[in-house]
Specification:
Belongs to the BolA/IbaG family. InterPro entries: BolA (IPR002634), BolA-like_sf (IPR036065). This is BolA family transcriptional regulator. With 93 residues, the chain is α+β, with helices and mostly antiparallel strands. It starts with a helix and ends in an 8-residue tail after the last strand. 18% of the residues are buried. Strands 1-2-3 form a three-stranded mixed sheet, covered by helices on one side. It has three helices and three strands, in the order αββααβ. The chain is 30% helix and 22% strand.
């Protein structure tokens, strides 16, 4: 399983974000995904602002991030919260 640093590097290379925050929320869900071979990161929140999202609706943005992390999802990333925006758009964070 990829570390948050590897995921951050991938997102930076694909989206060239002006702002990117990764929050590993796995510890908040301890026991929720209780498998002996559970990956290190099971729950991740991504806050990203990138001009790549300009003109894309929310669903398209989520699909783009999910596609970028398809390998992690296949290998046990159980929950992914995505907060994606284009530059200049209001965010709650």
């Amino acid at each position: 399983m990829s570390s948050t640093a590897e995921i951050e590097n991938r997102l930076k290379s694909l989206f060239n974000p002006e702002r990117l925050v990764l929050m590993d929320e796995s510890a908040q869900h301890a026991g929720h995904y209780d498998e002996p071979d559970a990956p290190e990161i099971t729950h991740l929140r991504i806050r990203i602002v990138s001009d790549k999202f300009q003109g894309m609706n929310r669903l398209a943005r989520h699909r783009a991030v999910n596609e970028a992390l398809a390998g992690e999802i296949e290998n046990g990333l159980h929950a992914l919260a995505i907060e994606a925006a284009a530059p200049g758009e209001k965010t709650r964070w």
